[in-house]
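Dataset card, provenance and construction

Sequences and ligand SMILES were collected as paired inputs. For each pair, a complete structure of the chain with the small molecule in place was predicted and serialized as C-alpha cells. The example below shows a pair involving zinc ion. Curators did not alter the output after generation; any descriptive sentences attached to a record were derived from the structure itself.
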Amino acid sequence: MAHISLYRRFRPSTFDEMVRQEHVVRVLKNQIEQNAAGHAYLFCGPRGTGKTSVARIFARAVNCEQPVNGSPCGKCAACRAIAEGSLDVTEIDAASNNGVNEMRDLREKVQYPPVTGRYKVYIIDEVHMLTDSAFNALLKTLEEPPAHAIFILATTEPHKIPATILSRCMRLDFKLIPAEDLEKHLTSVLEAIGKEYEPEAVSAIARAGAGSDRDMLSIAETCIAYDDKLTYAAVTAALGAADFKTTARLTEAMLHGDMPTALFATETALSEGKAVGVLVRDLMELLSQVTIAMTCKNAQKLLALPKDLFERVKLIADNADGRAVLRATELLGKTETEMRFASSPRILLETAIMRISMPETELSAEALTVRLNELERRVAGIPMPLAGGAVDIPVEEPAPKPAPKKVKQAPPEEVPPEYDYDEPPPLEEEPVFDDAFPEPPFSAPAPAPAPKAEPKAVPVAPIADNGEKPTAEVAFGRFLRTLRKTSRNGVLFTMCSDLIPSYEGDTLVLVTDVETIARSLQKEEHRAVMADTFALVGITSFEVRGAQPQAKSEDAITELKKNFSKYPVEVK
Ligand SMILES: [Zn+2]
C-alpha cells in the first residue's frame, strides 16, 4: 500500500472540517448558498493554514449540484468528476510555472466552457512567484474574465502582488492556527489512526507546528514512526528539543555573567550539530519566554510549555534581572542581522555572548536606567503619604514644608524627606547614606571634596538620634537606597520601588496593588534579601501585602483615627 502522508489523508473535504479560518469559510459558504461566487479571490496567509484546502473545497462547491450547507455534497456527478480529476479545476503552481507563456496558455484555455460543471476554476498557488510579464498576462484575463471562470490566487506574500491584480480580487486573509486548535486536530487524527499518545506529546507537536496544520502533521508523522506509542520523550528526541537543556544553561550563564560556562554551552550546542543561526533563534525564543514568565500573570498559559520546561523557564526568570534579559535579547537580535553578512557567524555569536556576560562594560546604561526608574516614580507621584493609607505623617515639624520636596535650606536639623531621591548615583561609589541620616555617627576619615556627604563604610545607626521612629516613608527610602547598593537584583529593586509603606504598630507594611509583585516578594528568596536589607536600616518587622482595597482602607482609617486622635479625621 502506498504511503499517504497524514496531511493528505486528513485534508478537509468540506468547509466544516476546516481547522479554524471561520472568517474565510463563512464568506465563501454564504456566497455558495446565495449563488453569488466572485470571479477572482486572493487567499493570503502563512503556509499550512488551509489556503489550498479551502480553494479546492470552494472549487467543488461552486460546481456541486446540491451543496450541503455551503459545502460540496461529494455525491453528485460534478463532485465525482472533480474528484476523478476533471479539467474544470486546474491547479497551477506559480513557483514552477511562473512565465508569461503559462499565463498566455491559461488565457486561451479559459475561454472554453467547462466540461461537466458550471465553472472553470483556476487555483494559482504561490502566485507572488509570477514574473512581471506573467502578471500582466494574468491581468488581461482578470480584466475580462469569461462568465464561467473563477480564479483563486493563493500566496504567502501578498505584498509582492501588483496593485492592479489586488484591486481585482476579493482578498481573504488566513490566520495562524492557535496551538489548542492544532492540538484538538492532532488528537482527532491520532484517534482516527488508532495511535496511543501522551497528551504532553500532542502539545509539544502542536507547539512545534507553530500555527501551521501541515507542518504539525508532518512533524507528527516523524514522531509517530519513532515508537508504538507517541510519547513526550520520543517527541523531544525527534524534534531535537533535548538541547533545550543546553540552551537553558547557556542563557542562565550568560545572564549571570558566567562567561566560561556560557562559552562551553555554546561549544556543546554547536558541536551537537546545531547551526549558529538556529542557536541564536533558540536563545532569543527562550529569552522572550523568560520575559513573559517574568512579567505576565498567566505566563504558563501563554507559553503553553510542558510543566518541566515551564518550571525551568520560570526559574531562569525568577533569578534574572529584567534589564539583563532585555539587553541580551537586543544584542542577540543585532547579531542575527549582522550574521547574514559575516564570513564567520560563529565568532559573531561568541562575541555577543561574551558581551552579554560582561555587563559591567556598560555600567553607564545601567546607571541611566536606575535614574529613569526614579524619575518615573517621581512623576507618578508615588511618595504621596496619604495615598496608600500611610499614617505616620511627620506632624511634629510642621514648619517650612509646603510640598514633598527636599528641603535643602535647613542644614543642621534637616526635615527627613519622604524619599530621598537625590541625584542618581554617579558611577563610582556613592555615600551609602546621605542626608536622610541626621548625623554621621561614624568618623569620616577623608576630608571629602564633596561638600554634601562623606563616603561611609557600613550602614548602621538606623534610628534617628533623637530616638524617634522615622516615618514609614523615610524608613522605606533608606531601605530602597540600601537595597540599590547592596543587591544586584534589579528586578527586586524595581518591584520594591513600587511599594507603598505604612506602619501597623512596629511592623512596616508594604502594599502593592499588583498581585504578582506581592506574591513574588513574599517568596522566600526575595523575603530573605529584603529582611537582610531592612535589618541594615533598623527595621526588624515588615510585611508585603497585595491590595485588598476594601479591608485595607478601613484598616488605614481606623489606624489614622487612632494615631491622630487629636485631629478630626474625615473620610471622603
Ligand atoms: Zn456535489
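Derived descriptions for this record:
Residues 64-66, 72-73, 75-76, 78-79 surround zinc ion (CB under 6 Å).
The first strand starts at residue 40 and ends at 44.
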